[in-house]
Amino acid sequence: MKKGAIQGAHEVGFWKRHLSKIGVAGSLFSSFVTSLFAAACCLGPPALLPIFSAIGLGFLISDAVLQPMMIFFLLVSLFGLILGMRRHRNPWAVSIGILSAVTAYVFRFVSVNNLLAWLGIAGLVIASQLNVLLRQRQLKAKLAFAP
User: Fold this and answer.
1) Pick from 90, 95, 101: which is nearest to 132 by CA?
2) Bigger pLDDT: 77 vs 12
3) Where are the domains of the chain?
4) Contact criterion met (CB below 8 Å) for 83 and 23
5) pTM of the model
6) Which residues, other chains included, contact 92 with Cβ-Cβ below 8 Å and sequence gap of 6+?
7) What is the pLDDT of residue 19?
């Protein structure tokens, strides 16, 4: 049987072809969502209670709900950065992401300092953008050396 384009595509495997896209998209999406939950944590109920109540999310104001959700989204962000690192082989984005996630969590729930918590969230967004930039640079280099 001849190897055709369809069979060749199946040999590579679905996850191997699409995992980097999930990593970059997941990283960007979860950074945005994490920023939203950090805003709920850092700005406090007076600023966000009317907004969340108007759209039916008034239960999100409690730290008992926000803490596990923030942990989940921070882990999703880090997972996306790790998947991106597997593709471009540069640890800077993951290093910045880990430092930023720890900073955001610690300065929100352990030692409360809103400015440093916001800096941690900004670091996560920067790490996600760096991840995309490194992936694009790797793809351009790969295309430049292709025959």
Assistant:
1) 90
2) 77
3) 17-144
4) yes
5) 0.69
6) 130, 134
7) 57
